[in-house]
């Protein structure tokens, strides 16, 4: 009876394994599907278009294009007639230049769009940095104002020195007995002129 249980368990395990193979598992990514349209990396295509647009915008490209056109025209004008591939109206040259222009314009636009996206990101970062700088400046301004207010309430060295001189003078006068009507406490003293009032 025990061997029957083992074979039944094995059969169930085998059938469960095949069933789990046929079903997709949620803990694993799906296998990529085959597509009819080929896939390409848009960033790689964008980088290639920027490189082409940069090259088209250089003087080197203009010089090479001018040299090719001059050689093309000279060859088709002065070469023997059986070696000429584009006769006088130069239709093939016109077709080649218009094809080059039709590809150059979208590539330049794509490069400009990518540059505009980068500029937008940079402007957003600059704006956030400016906001942080303004917030820091406002915080420091408030702190400096609080320090000025706090310094206005702090006893300065000159004020303490003048107060100590007044107390010493009062003590000397009490010892000499000249002014017995003046009290020890500031409320008992008559008003005096400040050092800065002089």
Describe the structure.
The protein has 198 residues and is mostly helical. Helices cover 70% and strands 0% of the residues. The protein has helices spanning 2-22, 42-56, 59-78, 91-152, 157-176.
- What's the helix-strand series? HHHHH
- Strand residues, percent: under 5%
Unreliable spans are none
Mean pLDDT: 81
Main sheet summary: none
Q: Count the strands? A: 0
Classification by helices and strands:
mainly alpha
Number of H/I helices? 5
Compute the CA-based radius of gyration: 47 Å
Layout of helices and strands:
Layout: H1 2-22, H2 42-56, H3 59-78, H4 91-152, H5 157-176
Features:
198 residues; mainly alpha; elongated
Kindly summarize this structure in a few lines.
This protein has 198 residues and is mainly α.
């Amino acid at each position: 009876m025990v061997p029957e249980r083992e074979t039944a368990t094995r059969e169930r395990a085998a059938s469960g394994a095949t069933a789990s193979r046929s079903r997709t598992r949620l803990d694993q990514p799906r296998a990529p599907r085959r597509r009819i349209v080929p896939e390409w990396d848009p960033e790689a295509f964008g980088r290639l278009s920027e490189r082409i647009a940069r090259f088209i915008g250089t003087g080197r490209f203009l010089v090479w294009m001018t040299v090719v056109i001059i050689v093309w025209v000279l060859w088709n004008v002065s070469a023997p007639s059986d070696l000429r591939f584009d006769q006088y109206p130069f239709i093939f040259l016109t077709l080649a230049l218009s094809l080059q222009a039709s590809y150059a314009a979208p590539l330049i636009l794509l490069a400009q769009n990518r540059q505009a996206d980068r500029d937008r990101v940079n402007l957003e970062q600059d704006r956030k940095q400016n906001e942080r700088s303004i917030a820091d400046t406002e915080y420091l301004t408030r702190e400096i104002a609080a320090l000025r207010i706090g310094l206005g309430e702090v006893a300065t060295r000159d004020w303490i020195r003048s107060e100590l001189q007044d107390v010493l003078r009062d003590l000397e006068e009490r010892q000499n007995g000249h002014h017995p009507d003046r009290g020890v406490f500031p409320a008992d003293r008559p008003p005096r002129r400040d050092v800065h009032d002089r």
